[in-house]
Structure formats: structure tokens, C-alpha cells
Design brief:
alpha/beta; Chemotaxis Receptor Methyltransferase Cher, domain 1; 2 domains; 10 strands; 39% helix; binds S-adenosylmethionine
């Protein structure tokens, strides 16, 4: 039986140019995300699943729901459906080598790092393992890694800290042994679970980078990798200025290797691909 308002022809639900424009405006105004023309097919395919789930018959009804729902939960679901959360442990590994060899040796106080757009947690847990390797041990240092994302769904995975074994091939065996517990889930699937030595270093929180930021910094390093690629130039410009303000002098900004600050006005000094220093 179908819910009221649903249609048997639902799969053919149309996305008009006006509806597409309304979606791109919402994405841009509330999340800074730029959705290019030509993505209509992708938007229709991905959001049709949301319409189906909510029992709505067309995109006008869906957009009214997204705009009026006070908790903004469906807006977050919409962003989730339209962006990629692709990430992995030790992704773009030269950044972690750089932190270990060129940043960490010069830190002598508390260590503060922000993973902005952390997705399902692989990036901040990688940072946590690196920090444990460098600063752990008997004279353990005060290390805090803030990890934020706009998406509830990825943050739930990140907080759970449980990953399938085949997602962890890039993690060195010695680190797996020290910081992860292997177990079988009820389904028989083998997983690794983050141990307290990692969990206590990382604080996960929901944060839309377009909104107010509650933290004051200063940070020793900010990683905003493979996130700004979704944003238009004006939004990138604002973000880079806000990152500058939250970094301590000598603090580092890391962006994704397919991103750069080229074309933006900023005061950072370029260090190596996708690494900048204040
Ligand atoms: C491709 S993932 C990058 C993950 C990780 N930084 C990496 O490089 O592996 C991009 C993440 O940015 C998040 N994101 C997109 N727009 C955002 C916004 N306005 N505020 C906060 N996070 C956002 C997405 O939810 C997604 O998890």
C-alpha cells in the first residue's frame, strides 16, 4: 500500500528547472555548496530516494518540507544525499608525514588540531594515532582534536568509531594492534573498534562551516581537505580568512591535494602542495 500523496509513477517524478534552481539556491545559501548546471540528473536520482522515504509525491512538496522543517534535519539529509563523504585512513599521506616531521617537533605546549569536514572520522582518528605515536607515552601531552562535519549520518559513524576491516588496509599493523580492537559483529562481519587511547583525544561535533563557530582557537593546525572544493570562490575566501583568524602564528592550514588557495586573497605562506603556514 502506498502512503497518501505517493504515486505509482513515482520513479518518473520530474525535476523542473525552477525546482532545480530552488535546490541549488538552498544549498548555496545555507551550506555554501555550489551545484553546477548539468547536475539535474544526479539531483533527481539522489533526492527521489528522499521523496520516497518521506512519502512525498513531487519536488515542490519536498522543498516546502525542507524549508519549513524547524530542526533542519531534512536539509542535512539533502546535503548528505548530494555531496560525497569519501574519505579514508591516512588519505593524502604526505600531510601526515609533514605533521610528524615538520610540525609536531616544534610544538611544546598543548596540541590543538581541527579536522573541519571530518566525514566519517578516518581523518581525525589518523591524527589521533599520529599524536599518540608522537606525544603519547609516560609524559603524555595535552592533545585535543576537534572534528566537525555538517552531516549527522557521517558523524554517527565517526562517533561509533567502528570500521570494516577492509577499510583499514592503509593503517600500519603496529597501529592497528595498539589502537584498535578487532571483533566480529553479530552479522559475522569483522570490524575494528577505536580504543580509548584514540577516543579520548577526539571530540566530534556537528558544525556547518557557513554558520557561527563556537570555538575560539588558537589551533596549531587546521585540516580542511576536500571540502572547499564544493564551495564557490566567495565562500572559500571567507573560510580562508576565518581559518587564518583561528590559527596561532606559525600554525598550518592543510587543504586537499586537488585544492589550493590560488585565486584567493590571503596572507598564508605556501609551504608545499596543499600546505600553508600563518
Ligand atoms: C569528501 S569529505 C572530506 C573528508 C576528509 N576531510 C578527507 O579529506 O578525507 C567532505 C565533507 O565535507 C562535509 N561538508 C560539506 N559541506 C559542509 C559544510 N557547509 N559544513 C561542514 N561540513 C561540510 C561533507 O558532509 C563531507 O563529509
Amino acid at each position: 500500500m502506498t502512503a497518501p500523496g505517493t504515486s505509482a509513477l513515482f520513479a518518473e517524478c520530474e525535476l523542473t528547472a525552477t525546482q532545480f534552481a530552488r535546490i541549488t539556491r538552498l544549498l548555496h545559501d545555507h551550506a555554501g555548496i555550489r551545484m553546477r548546471e548539468g547536475k539535474e540528473g544526479l539531483v533527481r536520482a539522489r533526492l527521489t530516494k528522499r521523496l520516497r522515504k518521506l512519502g512525498l509525491s513531487d519536488f515542490d512538496a519536498y522543498l516546502t518540507f525542507v524549508e519549513q522543517e524547524p530542526s533542519r534535519r531534512e536539509f542535512a539529509e539533502m546535503i548528505d544525499a548530494l555531496t560525497t563523504n569519501k574519505t579514508s585512513f591516512l588519505r593524502e599521506a604526505t600531510h601526515f608525514d609533514f605533521l610528524r616531521d615538520a610540525v609536531f617537533p616544534h610544538l611544546d605546549g598543548p596540541v590543538r588540531i581541527w579536522s573541519a569536514g571530518c566525514s566519517s572520522g578516518e581523518e581525525p582518528y589518523t591524527l589521533a594515532m599520529l599524536c599518540q605515536e608522537t606525544f603519547g607515552g609516560s609524559s603524555a601531552r595535552d592533545v585535543k582534536i576537534l572534528a566537525t562535519d555538517i552531516s549527522h549520518r557521517v558523524l554517527a559513524t565517526a562517533k561509533a568509531g567502528v570500521y570494516p576491516v577492509d577499510g583499514m588496509q592503509d593503517v600500519p599493523a603496529a597501529w592497528l594492534q595498539k589502537y584498535w580492537a578487532k571483533r566480529s559483529e553479530a552479522t559475522g562481519r569483522a570490524v575494528y573498534e577505536a580504543q580509548p587511547a584514540l577516543r579520548r583525544l577526539v571530540h566530534f561535533a556537528k558544525l556547518n562551516l557557513m554558520e557561527q563557530w563556537p570555538m575560539r582557537g588558537p589551533f596549531d593546525a587546521i585540516l580542511c581537505r576536500n571540502v572547499m572544493i564544493y564551495f564557490d570562490k566567495a565562500t572559500q575566501q571567507q573560510l580562508v580568512e576565518r581559518y587564518w583568524a583561528l590559527l596561532r602564528p606559525g600554525g598550518h592550514l592543510f587543504v586537499g591535494h586537488s585544492e589550493s588557495l590560488t585565486g584567493l586573497t590571503h596572507r598564508f605562506r605556501y609551504v608545499q602542495p596543499a600546505v600553508y603556514v600563518k
